[in-house]
Structure formats: C-alpha cells, structure tokens
Write a structure and sequence with these properties.
The complex is a heterodimer of chains A (about 400) and B (about 475).
Chain A (H helix, E strand, L loop, with lengths): L14 H6 L19 H6 L6 H12 L9 H6 L6 H5 L6 H14 L5 H13 L26 E4 L2 H5 L2 H13 L4 E2 L9 H5 L3 H17 L4 E4 L2 H15 L6 E4 H11 L2 E3 L6 E5 L3 H6 L4 H8 L4 E3 L23 H16 L5 E4 L2 H14 L4 E4 H8 E3 L1
Parallel strand pairs in A: 1-2, 1-3, 3-4, 6-7, 6-8, 8-9
Antiparallel strand pairs in A: 5-10
Chain B lengths: L1 H7 L4 E2 L2 H4 L16 E3 L4 H14 L3 E4 L15 E4 L6 E5 L4 E5 L4 H9 L3 E3 L12 H7 L6 H4 L6 E7 L5 E3 L22 H4 L8 E11 L3 E9 L2 H13 L5 E5 L12 E9 L1 H17 L3 E2 L3 H9 L10 H5 L4 E2 L3 E6 L3 H14 L1 H5 L3 E9 L3 E11 L3 H19 L13 H4 L5 H13 L18
Parallel strand pairs in B: 2-4, 3-4
Antiparallel strand pairs in B: 1-2, 5-6, 6-10, 7-10, 8-9, 8-10, 11-13, 11-14, 12-13, 12-17, 15-18, 16-18, 17-18
Classes of the chains: A alpha/beta (about 400), B alpha+beta (about 475).
Chain lengths: ~400, ~475
C-alpha cells in the first residue's frame, strides 16, 4: 500500500473550483445534439467517477479527507484524454482539466502513475522523445540540413511524433514552410515539449525540458515558433509560462493559422485535389478547445476549389475526441480504440471521401482505426493536402 | 454483490469506494449517504430481479436518473444505488399517433433533439429546463417545465408509463395496459389513472422504466417580449391578465435577486409566444396592450430570446452566462411551489422583508439569486433561490435554516410545492393530513418491506 499521508495536496490550489461544481452533468453528453457522447472517458469507464462531475466530486472528497489517493484512483484520473470537452461545456465555467492535472501531480508524488505511462516518461528523460528512439535520429527525416540551427526569426518545432513516427508529415510541413519564403530554422537538439511529463503529473521533469527548448530557441534569435502538433503548441503557450513562471519569449502559431494567413494575403492558392471531393474535418481537441483554433483549418478547406466540407454532427467546440489524447493508449488501449472507432464512424457517416485533421496524434489514430476497419474513407493531415495542391505566388 | 453481478453483468456493478462516493448528491445542498453498491441495469427485467433481491435481503434501493434536482434527493447510506443511465434508448417515435416512447434514462434534450430533426418536439419543452435531466426523472418529479404557461406541468403530457413495482411486478398504464392491444395512445383508457400514481411520486411507489409522451409539431414562429414595471403589484396584475387572455406560451416574472442589466424597475416580465404567424401576432398585441395598461415599459427582448434558445437563465437578467455563473462557489437551498398569482402581492414583499431582517443571512455571505416565477395557466410557480457559500460549513447550516424558514413562511400561507424530495418533504408532507395518510397507505401496500426510495417524500419513514 502506498503511503498516502506525506506531501501537501497540490489539489488545494484549485479547491475553489471543486466547490463551484453544481453537478449539472453538462460534462457527460451533448444532449442538445441528440443521444451523443461528450466524454470519452465516461463512455468507456461507465461510472460517474470517470467523468467530469464525478472527478470533481472525488477531488472534493480528497480535500475534505473523505477519500485518500490509492490505486483505485489511477484509472479514474489517468484514463482521460484531457480532451477538455467537460471544461468547454461546464455550466460553471470550471477549468476541470486543471483539477485533473493537480490530482495527477498529487498521484505522481505518491507513486500512483499508470505503469506503462511511467515507463514511457522514464525513458523520455534519456532519449528526449516519447518513443525511446535515439535522440540523434530526430532529424533523420530531413535531407537538406541547410536551415538546421541557423539563426532565424521563425522556427519550426517538429515534435516527437512527426520526428519519429510520422516523418512524412514533418517533411510536408517543412516543404510548405520552405515554399513560403519564410526565413525559418529547425533545432537539431529539440527535446520533447514536456507534455508527457505533465500528463504523468511530473512537473519538475517537465520544467527541465521546457527550459532546454526555450533557451535553445532563444539562442537562435527566434521570435516566432510554428507548430504542427497542437499538443506541443499548447504546452508552449499555456504550460511553459505557468511551469517556468515567466512569459514565453516568442510568439507561437499553428501551421493552419500561418497557411490561412498566406491564403488571406493571396500568396497561396490551391489547385483542384480531385473534382467534387467531399471532406470532413475533425477538430483536434487541443487545437480547438485547447487553443481556440477552429476557423483557420476551415478557411483553408474553403479556399480549395472543387472541395466541399461536410461537418460531422459533433464539430467545433462540440467535437468528439479521437481517443489518442494524453497518452492513454499506453495503459488504456481499449479507451483509445473505442473512442477512435466511434469518431471514425461519425466521420464516415458524413459521406466524405476524405477525413482531414490537423494533429499528428489524431492522424495516426485515425489511420490505425481505418486500417482496422478496412474503410474506404481516406485520412490525411491538412498540411499534407496543402502540400499536394499548393500554388504559391 | 455477486448476485447483482449475475443479474447485470460484472461491468455494471461496483462497490469501489471511489465510484460509490460519486452517487450520493444531486444539485441540492446536502450530500446523501454513500451507497454500498452502484448498479446500472440495462432492462426492465434486470430491475425486476434487483427489486426481488432487495426484498429478499431487505436492502433499500435508491433510483438515480441524472440527479439534477435542487432539493436533496436523500440517498441513504448503505443502499443499492440503481443508476438508470444505460436505459437511455428512444424506443419509438410514433408520428402517426403523435407520441414518443423512451426508456426512463433517456435524456430529455436528447429525445427532443431527435424529434426536432423531424420538425416535432415533446409537447412540453425542456422538462428539466436547461439541465440534462432524464425523461424518467422528470416525470417522476413532475417537473415544472419551460412553457408551463400554455403547456402546464410535465405530467400532463404523459400518455403511458411502464413501471416496476417494489415487489418486482411490471405494470403498464392507460391504453398500454391492454395485453392484447398494448398501444400507448391514451392515458385515460382502461380505468383509473394509474400513470398518475407514479407522476410526482419521485420513485417511492415504483420505478418508471418506460415513458410515452405526447409530441407536437414545432410551432411556426416564436416571438419575444420583455417589460419592466415600477411596482410588484403592477407586474403581478399584468401577469394575471396575460394568463386570463392566454397571451403567452411562457410567462416569466422576476421579483428579486439581481435586476436585469441596464434596465430600471422593481419587477419584470419576459414573454415567449409560440404559435402560427397570425395567431402569434395577435397574442403579441394582447401581451403588449396588457403590459402597457399596467404601466409596463417595453425593453429589448434579446435576452428573452437568448434565454429561450440557449436555456441559460442568466439571459433573463441580460447577463452572459460566463459572467453570471463563473467563479461562484455557491449552492442553492431552493424553495419552490405554486401559489395564486395575485398572492404574489403579499408573498414577494414578505420574502424581501424576511431577507432584510435576517441578520444571519448577510453574516453568512448569503445572497438572493432570484425570486422568479414561471406562471402556469392559472397560478404562479415561484422559485425562491437563495445562495450560500459552499466552502463554509457554517454558511451551509444557515442556508438550510433559511430554506426551512422560507418553506415555513410560504407553505403556511400560500404555497404548495411541485417537485418534492427529501429536502422539502419535511416542511410540506405533515400539512397534507389525510392525503399524506393515503400516500403512506399506498406505500405500505406496494412496498411492505420499504425497499424503494425509503424516506423520499417521507414515504416509508414510519416503516423504518
């Protein structure tokens, strides 16, 4: 049995939030849209302890000494994709994910971390990437090294997934930026952004990698950092200032925002991908609810001739998670699989030929689901489509 | 535990403390007891077996729909908690007979959204207001719905029910009771109104498992009006006149709490009119004439419209939800009920006087959130919503005393509550005399072992 007496509760910092919860259950489903799920974790875990209102009740019970952290809480707190749907729909505007994060921190110091996630973040310390691959291979996808570590006003933060498992995505991103005439650089010594450490409740480890990345980018005189991965971007925009206690010394921008701006300025136009293509767009949770970026991807799609966007019933702030968030696959693969299948079928039901999204984790997840289901619905990251049809002026 | 797992499957039964602790409290101020076991049946047959088991082992069973009432449901320590969320299917949308049949755990708004896609709606909109209540819970509580001014209370639109009695017997009501023609089309068929036995009984006499509700075509148009008045009396007189002339589908009065932003006055009326174009225009003119004859001043009804479309109460006060609901760790010891419309002229000043002269109220940091009225076709449903700071145990005690005192003040002179559960029952049931005696007789007859929602409505309390 783990010692549950020791350290002070991090949860105290968000105590008020737990008293604000009215228990309205807006965090469980999207009844306004019909009989539709909102929370993947509640859908999977079945009992209220896996959903927003239940977790906040657990937090309050912990604060009031009615409950102590133990192993039973591990799945109830960590089997959560942190998709922010509960926070987005909270009647009382509670940032529920902050409550979950504090609980994760409390659990981490008590040794209560899901086993596979623990292994992953432990190896991350040495390899600086979530996949345990050699750090020196991080840029092996990049043939032309001329921009690497060169001082520039803009930097491309590649992220672990494009660097190691979706290298074509990294290439596409690089290629689009290269065609745009931006003066940008890429770090050879880029480390993981630190998000996995935060997901595991390990703030100190996260601080170390955050400091490394920020200093390395500052050394190159970077003023603006562009991301493909919304998780990395949110870590920079929201978590680094909170963890390091100082504002970020550069601007951050998602690649879809940059491309939408090129389109708006008339610098970028598109040729026809395939005449009459119907696409649907999956809002990545972190890009949408986490960063508030809903319009830029749609503006890009709207600018593509001969293409029609057919929205899924759950889109924008109501979008359902793909199931891959917050590294739940390591320990709760069935949660990831069940959620991904539900979302994929929703996409397929639109009649679209192409499922677009803007997140390496979502693309990976949907491609896995597609392969398992043997579906004709194609899956593509928006940046890869842009690369195919871009006509620069 | 093992036998419940056999009935419902192991994945639908838990005795893990972290799970159980989440099933004891509704939106009311007082956490109930922690159940011993939480079970999520998937069918009426499973509920039947659970009730039989509960009788055998003499273990109380509490029903859990969505737990969004504001007045303390009263879950008891050590019970079996029956969560009905898996019984959430829409069984049949029957446009021909203008009814919809669902399982009890279906979410009201989810059912309504499915009907909306076909151009129809449940005959009474938003039985649980903005909250995502279940159909079964809303009917069991006989909730006061939006649109009550024209449509009446939720129970009025129930056509048929399926319920499991505490001994496990399954009954169907109205025309659905005929085994050879189980068609849920008329509540008044086949003898006494057995559906009425379960509507408003809050699960004390049986567990509602299926509900058939009337449905309507969505009206052609919706119109909105908002008026401010300088006195409570003028506002009440205007409301009564609107009721007499069937002016509004939904008439809402604000008589306390924060006034609407950027509007002066002492009392306010919001009006929502739903009808065909021509008739709606006539009703708008009626409401306007009435309000103006009582010196009402017309205001921008944008807040009224937003309230109706998004069901966010804050808009009744011209305030966006984030400003109204965000960062407020308060709970509401609500008292609500029906009283004659004109009695508001005495009740509202009496409530303001109570708040003004109650030294504890301010000392505990309490506030008045609203003294709001949903006008029924012929009466007023007044919500007295006070708030206490949830982080202070002392304030909570004051809040509970305030609830008792306001209940005493209102129930003793004017008011009879609508939905009643444990938080309100002690203040009203002893006043009901032989009606309460009859309820207790029914409870004993149907639930001799007192296993189903014991103590809710105080029913079964004498058997404990």
């Amino acid at each position: 049995m783990t010692d549950t007496k020791a350290p002070e509760l991090q949860l105290q910092a968000v105590a008020q939030s737990t008293y604000e919860c009215l228990r309205c259950a807006f965090c469980y489903d999207l009844s306004w849209l019909g009989s539709t799920n909102l929370c993947p974790s509640y859908t999977w875990g079945s009992f209220e302890s896996y959903g927003g209102r239940g977790r906040v009740a657990l937090a309050r019970a912990l604060l009031e000494g009615e409950l102590e952290y133990d192993e039973s809480l591990i799945p109830r707190i960590f089997a959560c994709t942190e998709c922010r749907a509960c926070a987005e729909h909270c009647f009382k505007y509670i940032d529920t994910v902050k409550v979950y994060d504090r609980m994760r921190q409390d659990m981490a110091v008590r040794g209560l971390i899901p086993p596979e996630l623990k292994i992953a973040v432990d190896q991350l310390v040495a390899s600086h990437n979530l996949y345990g691959k050699p750090h020196e291979k991080r840029l092996s996808w990049l043939k032309d090294r001329s921009r690497v570590d060169q001082p520039a006003p803009v930097a491309f933060f590649v992220g672990c997934t494009p660097s190691y498992v979706r290298r074509s995505l990294a290439e596409d991103f690089y290629s689009v930026l290269d065609s745009s005439d931006l003066d940008f650089t890429v770090l050879s010594d880029e480390w993981c952004c630190g998000h996995p450490f935060l997901a595991a409740g390990q703030t100190e480890r996260a601080a170390e990698v955050m400091s490394h990345n920020v200093e390395a980018l500052q050394d190159l005189g970077v003023e603006q950092l562009i991301f493909e991965c919304p998780g990395c971007m949110r870590t920079f925009r929201e978590d680094i200032p909170a963890v390091l206690g100082e504002p970020l010394p550069f601007e951050v921008l998602h690649i879809t925002e940059a491309i939408a701006e090129f389109v708006e300025e008339g610098r970028l136009q598109f040729s026809i991908y395939q005449p009459g293509t119907v696409v649907t767009y999956h809002d990545p949770c972190t890009l949408g609810r986490g960063l508030g970026i809903y319009d830029a991807p749609r503006a890009i799609i709207a600018a593509m001739p001969g293409m029609r966007l057919q929205e899924m019933p759950r889109h924008g702030r109501d979008a359902y998670c793909c199931g891959a968030g917050s590294f739940v696959r390591y320990d709760y693969a069935s949660l990831t699989d069940q959620t991904g299948v539900e979302r994929f079928w929703e996409a397929a039901a639109t009649g679209a030929q192409l499922l677009l999204t803007s997140c390496p984790a979502c693309v990976t997840q949907f491609q896995n689901v597609r392969a398992a289901l043997d579906s004709p619905l194609q899956v593509m990251d928006l940046i890869s489509l842009v690369k195919q049809v871009a006509r620069w002026k | 535990m093992e036998r419940l797992q056999e009935i419902c499957g192991p994945e639908h039964v838990t005795n893990v403390y972290a799970d159980r602790i989440c099933y004891r409290r509704d939106c009311g101020p007082t956490p109930g007891g922690i159940p011993d076991i939480v079970v999520r049946p998937q069918s009426t047959a499973e509920i039947t077996q659970i009730f039989r088991l509960a009788n055998e082992v003499r273990k109380p069973v509490f029903l859990w729909g969505r737990a969004t009432t504001f007045v303390d449901h009263g879950v008891q320590e050590g019970c079996i908690l029956l969560a009905l969320d898996l019984m959430n299917r829409i069984l049949k949308i029957d446009l021909e007979n203008q009814v919809v049949t669902t399982e009890a755990g279906a979410i009201w708004h989810a059912v309504d959204s499915e009907l909306n896609k076909l151009g129809w709606e449940i005959a009474v909109p938003g039985g649980g207001g903005m909250f995502s209540c279940t159909i079964g819970g809303t009917v069991a509580y006989n909730a006061v719905p939006h649109g009550i001014t024209e449509y009446g209370v939720t129970g009025r639109h129930v056509v048929a029910l399926e319920a499991v009695l505490p001994d496990g017997t399954v009954v169907r009501t109205g025309s659905a009771a005929n085994r050879d023609a189980p068609l849920p089309i008329e509540r008044g068929a086949n003898g006494p109104d057995l559906a009425g036995l379960f509507i408003g009984a809050c699960g004390t006499l049986g567990a509602i498992t299926e509900v058939t509700l009337r449905i309507n075509r969505i009206p052609e148009t919706e119109r909105f009006l908002f008026y401010a008045f300088d006195t409570v009396d003028q506002c009440v007189d205007a409301a009564a006149a609107v009721q007499r002339q069937n002016g509004a589908t939904f008439l809402i009065g604000l008589f306390g709490g924060p006034p609407p932003a950027n509007v002066s006055g002492k009392a306010f009326l919001h009006m929502i009119i739903r009808d065909g174009q021509t008739r709606a225009a006539e009703r708008v003119r009626t409401c306007q004439s009435v309000c103006e004859s009582y010196f009402g001043r017309p205001q921008d009804p944008e807040g009224t419209k937003r309230y109706w479309l998004g069901h966010m109460y804050s808009w009744l006060r011209n305030t966006p939800p984030n400003a109204y609901y965000g960062s407020r760790p308060y709970y509401c010891p609500e008292v609500a009920g029906f009283l004659p419309t004109l009695a508001l002229k005495q009740a509202i000043p009496a409530l303001h006087e109570y708040v003004r002269t109650n030294a504890e109220f301010a000392r505990a940091g309490m506030r008045v959130k609203g003294m709001d009225v949903y006008f029924s076709p012929n009466a007023a449903f007044l919500w007295v919503d006070t708030l206490y700071p949830e982080m202070s145990p002392e304030a909570k005690q004051v809040g509970l005393r305030v609830r008792a005192e306001i209940a005493e003040l209102l129930f003793g002179r004017w008011m009879s509550p609508g939905g009643i559960v444990s938080g309100i029952a002690p203040y009203i049931m002893p006043r009901l005399g032989s009606a309460y005696d009859l309820m207790k007789t029914l409870k004993r007859a149907l639930d001799p072992n007192n296993i189903l929602n014991p103590g809710v409505l105080l029913l079964g309390k004498d058997q404990e």
